[in-house]
Amino acid sequence: MAEPSTILVVVPDRKTQRVVQRILGATLHRVEIVDAVDQAERMLAHRVPALLVVDGALVAQGAAANLLAAAAERGTAACLTLLTGPGVVELPRLLQLGAVTNLLVNPMPVLAEELTITALKLLRGDLFGLEKYMAWGAQVQEAHMRRSAESGLLVEQLSGAVRAFGLGPRVASMAMLVADELLSNAVYSAPVDGDGRRYRRDLARDADTSFEGREVVRLRWACDARYLAIEVADQFGSLGRDTILASLAKAGARDGMRDDGTGAGMGLVLTYRSCDHLIFNLDPGRRTEVIALIDVRFPAAERPGPGSSYNVFVARPDPTTV
Question: Of all helices (H) and strands (E), which one includes residue 108?
């Protein structure tokens, strides 16, 4: 039987170490935990872990930059999380680092859910589908957008479903904003021609345009009484990792958006600020899938974390097509 690959965890707090050991042990990978960055650097020099989990506090303090660079160079996936608690680090500081592809910010028990799913997706390379974030049995509803004029109808359909779930007007309003922004990106920003030109970017938003083939946009949603999940997918795969990270960095910058809510990257910034976890599943040149999770367990005033978690997953190349 093959020896399981290793997950390397860097976190100084002993109590947190025990909790993370139990969470990641469920992946059936060997979990090795160290207290300090220099210990992890020495271990990385002799072996290549499948996954590196680092306390976001160490990253924000500048202590883990070389470790992350070395891990990336050796092909190790990295997940950064505020394991020592949301009060330790100001979230905008991490956002503005600009290279953090997986950041989990919520405390327990939400962190356990986020960390388990993120680790398994990174380890297995099985990225797509909102079902991974839903409890078993949650019913997924699906709609396809074949004309630009259908956007408002789909958003209203989603709003009606949210109210039917009994979630109330606040969640419905958040869901409508998220869906509208993601659909707009998929319709007007995602399509590219053979030369890489975004031929719909400057199209008038009030024009009714029909879609066919790979231009059709898919909207899916589900709720399991923990999360309302909203998924929008296009078949172009033109949204890049660097573009996403640059937009998320604006969410932590004071001048990222103007007072009227406009500015570069407005759509992704608004979406990020309107949900509790934003996930990008990228298959370059093939498809982009964005999933927004809205935690419906807590009233607005009792939101558990200091901000929103996010992931940017990129599909591994298929060796059979290379």
Answer: none
* Cβ-count burial 55-88 (b if 16+ within 10 Å, e if not): bbbbbbeebbeebbeebeeeebbbbbbbbbebeb
Q: Domains along the chain?
A: 6-124 (3.40.50.2300), 130-321 (3.30.565.10)
> What is the end-to-end Cα distance of the chain in Å, rounded?
30
**Do 146 and 216 form a contact (C-beta atoms < 8 A)?**
yes
**Residue % of the chain over a pLDDT of 90:** 43
- Provide the 8-state DSSP code for 167: -
Q: In what order do the strands lie in the sheet with 227-234?
A: 30-34, 6-10, 51-55, 77-81, 102-104, 309-314, 277-283, 287-295, 227-234, 217-223, 141-145
- Cα–Cα dist 156/234, whole Å: 20
On whether the CB atoms of residues 180 and 237 are closer than 8 A, the answer is: no
- pLDDT above 80 (res 85): no
Say what angle helices 151-164 and 168-184 make with each other, to 10 degrees: 150
Cα–Cα distance for residue pair 78/181, rounded to 1 Å: 28
- Coil, strand or helix at 203: coil
**What's the average model confidence in pLDDT over 152-159?**
93
Residue 310: its H or E element: strand 309-314
254 against 165, higher pLDDT? 165
pTM for this predicted structure: 0.89
Q: How confident is the model at residue 184 (pLDDT cuts 50, 70, 90)?
A: very high
